[in-house]
């Protein structure tokens, strides 16, 4: 993308976000898909944000994507987070340079890639992910969902949690372990399951503190058949290796969302404080030096987190998969995820009693903010990763990671 | 109370609390009064917890009360908080030794006191408070609600926010400024307004992040007539003086509630962690040393806040109204109010993704926890009070306080 | 002790402390024993503070002792810390009720106890401790110093670190492992080594950031002979059991010292701020609300730590050795040890550039403050202990502790 | 500079720093100028690091300078800090594009600039600064030091604190207020005073907690004569305007130093932990997950501060003097100054008892680390600046700043 195109894209996202902001409260309250937001995204041509230009997409780099996601998420955090789920698939595929791989495997990869990117760009289809499972979170090495080869395809059985957009998205990338494969490094593969596949069942249990409009319900797979050509990238066993070596999508994809929540919280706080008066006076509370000082501290923390997020994203663009890039991603994931609830809590304290009314967005930010650190890699996993890295452990070794 | 009576009382509260816990989710969701909890409280004879024994009550001291409230609030935070609103009135009246005051003023005080305590003990009536107003919070020196003397009573006009239990409680203690009185130290008086007084109107706007079952709606007073004998303690101008000299009820009354939320959060976290497994294993996560260490830190913080709360309550019993007592109250209010959201946030982080489900209480604790620091004295007011005190300012001077 | 005696004792300590404060800078700079402070302590009859009245001492309880130590340490932190080393021995002996133990073992215990307490009270002798060793800290189960039985006594060989007062104190309680004993629970015994025992050698390496006047040098024991009657309490194998069951002396003994440092830091900060002007004005900086607010926060933290320290000390007096008492000790140790450096750092920030001059005590407080969390149980060990306790581990099991 | 030149410069600094590290302990202990370090700096041609290439210097940009200073300061913090004092003058002069200013004023400016840069590059002269005064810190609007015009020059009278390198540096830039000028915006000018000017007297009072080798003594100016051509940039009244509009040198100059201290602390901690064993075992403590986690958190904080420092420096290069640049400088100053003592305190806690020995550098880092937040703009001034900026105050207005 040219510099101008990047700027335009981010501005488009910023302007869509204002519409999302108006709808966010209702989607949150009802815990329903932000369907109108998705339509705006589709109409703006953003489904292909990560798809290479030669495949009909916008061809955004990771930094531009991160900033775009941040903008979208200031208005619609759940919208942004689920849009990112779509882009995990689009992004990984776009980065997979399959052209030079020959033979039948190369063909399978190319065919799959072309099909998937085509669905996105031409058919406006959305992709979602089904990874987490009960008791193991997103730790792929312990996956209980299995697949086995059958004629013409694969049969999957298992149970998935937290499948965002389940029921709305068109396709679900499902992670499964090959039936006989076990041990520390089981063979993990991904499959594309269509929404109307009769082998899946949706269990509607989603009712949570925050990020409610992600509608992340549970998916049960019962002898779910997937044809050969819907094996992800036409290749078995891609799973853990990819996650360990290039975690920027599954870890660093949504930091933009939580940065957006932080920014929205901060902006709302500023505007609220400007209007709030010192009790019994006409003077704004922003004239109190302790208010200035608290706001100042939060500004430093916000900019510190932002600097880590942008730095990590830029490193993905320049040195994808390098150990220092992966560490930077984990740094940024931790920083922004744990800043979010702290910032929201302080913002409520500063804004005072009216700040908790459901008619204002601050209480939603407070609820949404607490969710980031629970998504993979969790805040504690990020710290262990960062610490191990600083202490000289080799994090290209899967056993040193949390997968 | 004897030692044994204190123990029994606290145990009664603890056992009621288990019932409250079962109902809390529903009351929270609907934002309705916890009516069954209130009935339990009434049936257990707790309405008179602060009423002296010679007036038919339990005659609890402030420390025992605080521990009782803590217990009640572990199960029903909104129940505890509103019950405390009732006890602010009961407690202040009980502490007011009016016996030796002679003359017509003495008679008016005694009559009022006997009437009010009698309503509580014999008629099982609940009292609530109406203090806060738009733009001034609970800063009494800036009250806009006014009263004027008329034949046989007073006429009140004004608008009150955050009136907990409004619509359920039988009586409302309304703070108002004498019409012609102004300046830094206006004459503030309190009046008892009955629920069915035609001069009040309830505006149902309550819809908040947390403490939802307190149902703290707005009250509009339009030429609201109150007869002479419903002037609080038969005395005009009690207001700011009382608040400045003996803030233990209006500030320190509900720290028990937020301590209860902290304890409930901590207990739930412990039980959740014990059941949570290290992904892919049968081992509990409590075997991880970093989990132990985080839990340890939270335990120290919780016990530190508790120690401040109990110490302040004991000082109220031993040195009511002394400057050091009032400082201790503000210390404890700050400590427990700001610990609560931090603890709840960390508890969610430690418990992981399932911790945000609305089927579990943790997400409610997280929401309720953020509200304590917004109630008077707010966390920031407490810090200023504590700092001024340490720096040698004279906080018996009203201008140095936040009233 | 009567209430009056307690008050007098604490006042005596407070008044001695003012003298210590005048000398502290010089002792710190030179890293020499605070000999004049020790003489004041001896002249005031404080060596026997823990010795029961019937043995000629003051018979202080643990809470009164803690408050006394706090006072002494506000002026002389190193003095207080080393005085506590003396009292570890005095206190453990005083608590050991040996009267009813019959037979030769009972006689040996009684004789030893009478001798040691007599030395303290009648001969004004000071006791020190030699526990830590290279690479193991104070983890007794891994002690490398050994002893073996010989005719008339024992021979000890080993190397001890951080022996406070080494060269000044009259007697050293040396921990050693029985030569053939090993495994998880080796037999650990204590011996009294006199200063002029030819079997010890002092290695003068002490030169540290803080607590410099404790002069905690290294002791080498080479075939050091100790006669039978200098076996601690006439009993082998006392070690780990005692430490695990009743850690109040070795863990909780010196929290009073670090609380004293905190208090001294806070008091100095207040006095400094009162004199400090807003640049270019005659107004004190204490009129700035953010200064008040920061001071307020520190006041809450200080009082929170103090409340934990006093509560734990009171529990020692009322429920010595109970699990909840031991947990409370670890809570207080952590809270006060980690508050100290944070408070000192903030105090310097608030006091500004002149606060780092060596002519003022603040910079010494900052240095001394960092040392508390390194002494057993270290801050991190305290957290693990607190966390395990909250999570239901049985900390009477030695394997669950850090010994 | 080319990319290659930048890399070489930073490497040169890194390699000099290793030598500084060996000498740092002695300079710190004696509080003497790090003369050998200065010689290394001179021999490496670094005095002219900020001098434009066309004037014979290296022509470093601000980001490269910041990284160079960071490197130098990892080994010699006091060396780095004082070297920065020199570069404040060199940098401000280098940035002052005087070429196009005509007339006698232009000539005076050019002559001064050429002279000063020539002294640096050709004569290897070092410049220092004399700004702070008793009771006002570095708040220029309240300066008490005055100057008046006399024949051939100016007469200065006053008293300056914290003049780093006083007695070693060749020239001192002294800030003074024009005698008759007062009010909110007095006329502040700068003058070059040579070391051997008989009008100055050095008061040797420097003895501090940290940054001891900066030897920042006091300077008394008694009828100190300065010839016309030593008026800074040949222009009176430059002072406050410059400081308000382009604070990057006086505020942001030394963040590189404190970032260097942070990095050195972190690096030392890592190497120490790798060698430290779990007590009684041969296993390194780095295998403990809570150690990894704590190290991880510190790594995130360090990288967050670094990201802010580099970002601000880059903004200076790209948008010097813009409001957003100035805010970024204050963000970075706060972040790194307050991280430093927190990081050092945690590092000591993690490294344990041996970490406080004066034979190891950690205790010096802990002492040096606390000094950054006291230098202008102090940490609290930075927060107020950051807060005001976020709240919409106009910080190009001098009254809104701390000058």
TrEMBL record, chains A, B, C, D:
SUPFAM superfamilies: Acyl-CoA dehydrogenase C-terminal domain-like, Acyl-CoA dehydrogenase NM domain-like
Domain Acyl-CoA dehydrogenase/oxidase N-terminal positions: 4-90
Annotated Acyl-CoA dehydrogenase/oxidase C-terminal domain residues: 256-371
InterPro entries reported in the protein's UniProt record: Acyl-CoA_Oxase/DH_mid-dom, Acyl-CoA_Oxase/DH_mid-dom_sf, AcylCo_DH-like_C, AcylCo_DH/oxidase_C, AcylCoA_DH/ox_N, AcylCoA_DH/ox_N_sf, AcylCoA_DH/oxidase_NM_dom_sf
CDD domains: ACAD (cd00567)
Keywords: FAD, Flavoprotein, Oxidoreductase
Catalytic activity, EC: 1.-.-.-
A Pfam family it matches: Acyl-CoA_dh_N
Enzyme class: oxidoreductase
Required cofactor names: FAD
GO molecular function: oxidoreductase activity
Domain Acyl-CoA oxidase/dehydrogenase middle: 130-224
Protein name: Acyl-CoA dehydrogenase family protein
Residue runs in coiled coils: none
Family: Belongs to the acyl-CoA dehydrogenase family.
Segment forming the signal sequence: none
